[in-house]
Amino acid sequence: MDEVPGSLGTSASFSLRMGQTMFSSASLLFMSFGVEFYSYTAFCYLVTIMGLVIPWSFTLALVDGYSVLLKCPIRQPGILLIIVVGDWVLSTLTLAAASSTASVVDLLLNTHGSFCPPKLCSRYRISAIMAFLSWLLSLASSLFNLWLLPSL
Amino acid sequence: MDEVPGSLGTSASFSLRMGQTMFSSASLLFMSFGVEFYSYTAFCYLVTIMGLVIPWSFTLALVDGYSVLLKCPIRQPGILLIIVVGDWVLSTLTLAAASSTASVVDLLLNTHGSFCPPKLCSRYRISAIMAFLSWLLSLASSLFNLWLLPSL
Question: Coiled-coil regions in this chain (chains A, B) (predicted)?
Answer without folding.
Answer: none
